[in-house]
Design goal:
Elements (H helix, E strand, L loop, with lengths): L4 E4 L11 E4 L2 H8 L7 H11 L4 E5 L3 E3 L4 H7 L4 E9 L7 H14 L6 E11 L3 H14 L9 H9 L7 E2 L4 E3 L4 H15 L5 H7 L11 H14 L4 H12 L4 H16 L21 H17 L1
Helix pairs in contact: 2-5, 5-6, 7-11, 9-10, 10-11, 10-12, 11-12
Organism: Stutzerimonas stutzeri
Protein name: Nucleotide-diphospho-sugar transferase domain-containing protein
Length: about 300
């Protein structure tokens, strides 16, 4: 029977939850981080530690949620030697990137790594117990490569790909896990609403309530999005991303989860340099003609909130 193993320096946060907790001290966390202070090194060490005590292990990033039963991950891992969130391309496709410039010669000369190496996303990483040496190698590679590219935060998953060079193609988790790493700004408010309404104490009721959480980023209805696409052909000739962010901010569904994302869409306008004074123009100009008077007032209020938060 699979179990959930949590490594944490805050074990009390998981009291009552059906998980096995390994409490980590500050000294242990420092050791896992390494002398270079690379925080993501902890992830590789945690994967290595779990493999030492179980036949198979599937690591899952916290910015994920399941869209299918979790045990299917182990079923999929059984099809091959390793499991990843997804394959993102090959090393040669990164030939114009700083990471390639910093490490390609070393990897080719010292480890025989060619441009055909797979680049993987380790938001989910499943391995069998015989992969302990692979993770040892990955940790050594992290320590070797991080000083060469200290500003690149994905060295951990890159090092796993290097260590696994020569293995058969990994199985992907497509259809089992949603990894929302590129959309955290939307999902964090959604989670805040959920835990504010239901608390953080484990119970069957909490699990049942989790089924109400949306499984995709809150957006206006398909009908409203169609209206936007049609209307934008007339009014949106400049700044189409601004127009979409504004339209989404004031046309989201009325449920609490969607409403929590309205300020996020407004923040996109702030970050793109939108001049909010143009909202007061009468008559409205440009893409602001897509919005009613009430929607423009709503947008102004959201922008005011977003600017206070920025």
């Amino acid at each position: 029977m699979p179990s959930i193993l949590v490594y944490t320096d805050e074990p009390e946060a998981f009291t009552g939850w059906p998980v096995d907790v390994v409490a980590l001290s500050g000294d242990e966390l420092d050791d896992w981080t390494g002398r270079q202070g690379y925080l993501h090194r902890r992830k590789a060490v945690a994967i290595r530690a779990a493999l030492a005590s179980c036949e198979r292990s599937v690591f899952i990033d916290t910015d994920t949620f399941f869209i299918a039963p979790a045990n299917r991950l182990f079923e999929r891992l059984s099809r091959g030697e390793w499991l990843v969130d997804k394959i993102e391309g090959t090393w040669g496709e990164w030939a114009d990137q700083p990471l390639y410039a910093a490490t390609a010669s070393l990897l080719r000369e010292e480890y025989g790594v060619g441009d055909d190496m797979r680049l993987i996303n380790s938001g989910v990483l499943g391995l069998n117990q015989d992969a302990v040496p692979l993770m040892d190698h990955a940790i050594d590679l992290i320590d070797e490569l991080h000083p060469l590219a200290p500003d690149i935060h994905i060295i951990e998953q890159f090092a796993v790909g290097v260590a696994a060079y020569g293995l058969p193609e990994p199985t992907e988790t497509r259809g089992l896990v949603r990894h929302y790493y590129g959309e955290k700004r939307y999902w964090r408010p959604v989670l805040d609403v959920f835990f504010a309404n239901h608390g953080e104490v484990y119970s069957p009721a909490l699990i049942k309530a989790s089924g109400q959480v949306p499984r995709s980023r809150p957006k206006p209805s398909k009908w409203r999005r169609l209206i936007f696409r049609l209307a934008s052909t007339l009014y949106v000739r400049k700044a189409p991303k601004m127009a979409r962010s504004a339209f989404y901010a004031v046309n989201l569904p009325r449920d609490a989860y969607s409403a929590a994302c309205a300020p996020v869409y407004a923040m996109e306008l702030v970050n793109s340099g939108f001049d909010s004074s143009s909202i007061a123009a009468d008559p409205p100009v440009g893409w602001l003609r897509l919005l009613s008077s009430g929607q423009r007032k709503r947008l102004q209020a959201l922008l005011d909130d977003a600017q206070r938060l920025s």
